[in-house]
Amino acid sequence: MQSIKLGGTASSISVGRVAVSSFIFSSWTPSPVSDQQAFEAIKAGVDALPDGVKMFLNSGEFYDNNWGTGNLKLLSRFFANYPAYAEKTFLSVKGGMSASGPDGSLEGLRRSVDNIQDELGSIKKLDLFEPARIDPKLPVETTMKNLVTLLKEGKFSHIGLSECNANMLRKAHSIYPVTAAEIENQKAVIATATELNISVLAYSPLGQGFLTGQIKSLADIPEDDMRAKYDRFKEENFNKNLAIVNRLKAIAMEKKVTAAQLCIAWVASLGPTMIPLPGSSKATRTLENLNAGDIQLTQEEKKAVEEVILVNQLRANGNSKKRRLRHYACDYVMAQAKVVRGLEVF
Fold it and tell me: Which residues form the NADP-dependent oxidoreductase domain (predicted)?
């Protein structure tokens, strides 16, 4: 499997060409997957990579149905059972949120980082910390200086940012090298990240399962599944969105890959520092996703994907005015054309 060097202060670290989000282990349904199933999915991904290449594993302080630390607790149990895998993973965790919103203060960030490490336990150290949102009450330079203070205290080894724009990224990087930016697709951010050698974590490249081709009807979404609340899965939008999925499946069949692999490969092709960040609760799906990092698309195939999206505008409005609208999945294509915006993934 192909690997890629991380950016910023982690430029000596090689990770798999495709990262793994642990979000799905603890969210979406009231009954998260079993530890055994989650552990097998993680182990399969790690074991598939060459020696010396780490699996990029992404989590969040609030990845849980109750916005708690359930995901971190699961990872703690994993590393307790498989301590040798601590050195084989590069763990990134989002945090820095309070009841009132993003908190980029030194006290707020310290509280978040300490909570994350307490939940992870002593076996696995936090490799990279990223504020889940940029605190609008502070200049990004101030937030960055606070992060550097915590880094120098040994709280974590590398700094990332989530949901930043190109200007924020450049300002932050001027204070201290940023290793990764987890963002919605923005052409300017990708260009800036390429220029500054910052990894771009492209979250939700499979549209929360829609673009895998496995969801064929509304009945495939259980009522207690959080995705049932999203507009893209509502009856008035579902069939229009399914038409896009079917067209992408046709392109994938010609390429002799799955629809999921096509989307992941397309996202990876957007820039030299792009790292697609899909999630999967099954070992087989994890391996399918990681194998997509080896797929090279021709210019004609890239154009075919873009044309599908542009001809069939995806219906994917937000499910709450309070939630920030964001692109998802192969909305990376639509973002370039500024056609449609989608729903945030957590």
Answer: 31-308
Predicted TM-score (pTM) of this structure: 0.86
Q: What is the pLDDT of residues 38-77, one digit of tens each?
A: 999 999 999 999 999 999 999 999 988 778 899 999 999 9
Instruction: Give the model's pLDDT for residue 33.
Output: 86
Q: Give the domains, in start order, of the chain with CATH numbers.
A: 3-206+259-294 (3.20.20.100), 210-256+298-343 (no CATH)
- Which residue numbers are catalytic? 63
- The confidence score (pLDDT) of residue 326 equals 33
Q: Which residue has the tokens 């074991």?
A: 47
* Residues 297, 303, 306, 308, Cα dihedral to 10°: -100
**Tens-place pLDDT, residues 294-327:** 999 999 999 999 888 776 654 444 443 333 323 3
Helices 140-152/166-175 angle, 10° precision: 40
> Can you list the alpha helix ranges (DSSP code H) found in the chain?
23-26, 35-48, 70-81, 106-120, 140-152, 166-175, 187-196, 235-255, 259-268, 283-291, 299-311, 331-337
Burial annotation 145-164 (CB, 10 A radius, 16+ → b, else e)? bbbeebbeeebbbbbbbbbb
Side chain identity at residue 49, one-letter code: L
